[in-house]
Amino acid sequence: MTDTWTQHLAAVAIGTALLALSAHIQVPFWPVRLSMQSFVVLAIGLACGRRLGTVTLLAYLAEGALGLPVFQGGMAPPTWLGRPVAICSASCSPPRWWARLPTAGPREAS
C-alpha cells in the first residue's frame, strides 16, 4: 500500500517539475507565445491516467497559487488570478438597472 502512495507522490512531483520546466521552454511561434506545456500536459495525461493526471495538474496550480514561479513568464497569482475573477464577477452579477425594471402586473383576461 505504501509503495503505491510513494509511486503516486513521485509521479505527481515529477509531473509538476516537468510542467514548471516546460513553461519556460518557448516554441518559436507567432503571434501568440507558446510553450511546451501543452505537450507535457498531454504526456502526463497519457502516462498517469485521468485521476493521477488531474491530481498532478491541481498540484501544479497550487504551487503557482503559493507564489512559486512555475507559470510562463513567471506570473504571480495576482496576475493570473485577477483576470478570471474580475471577468466572472463582472459577467455573473446582474447590472443595477436590472433590479429596477418594473415587473409586469397581473394579466387581464381577454
Structure description:
The chain has 110 residues and is mainly α. It has one domain (2-96): Arp2/3 complex 21 kDa subunit ARPC3. The chain has helices at 2-23, 37-65, 77-92, 96-99; strands at 26-27, 34-35. The protein has a two-stranded antiparallel sheet. A hairpin with a 6-residue loop joins β1 and β2. It is extended and about 75 Å long.
In terms of topology, how is this protein built?
Elements: H1 2-23, E1 26-27, E2 34-35, H2 37-65, H3 77-92, H4 96-99
Antiparallel strand pairs: 1-2
In short:
By secondary structure, the chain is mainly α.
Mean pLDDT, nearest integer?
A: 77
Question: What are the segments in which pLDDT stays under 50 over at least 5 consecutive residues?
Answer: none
Structural shape: extended
Largest sheet: 2 strands, antiparallel
Percent of residues in β-strands: under 5%
Sheet with the most strands: spatial strand order: 1-2
Q: What's the total helix number?
A: 4
Protein structure class: mainly alpha
Number of strands: 2
CATH architecture: Orthogonal Bundle
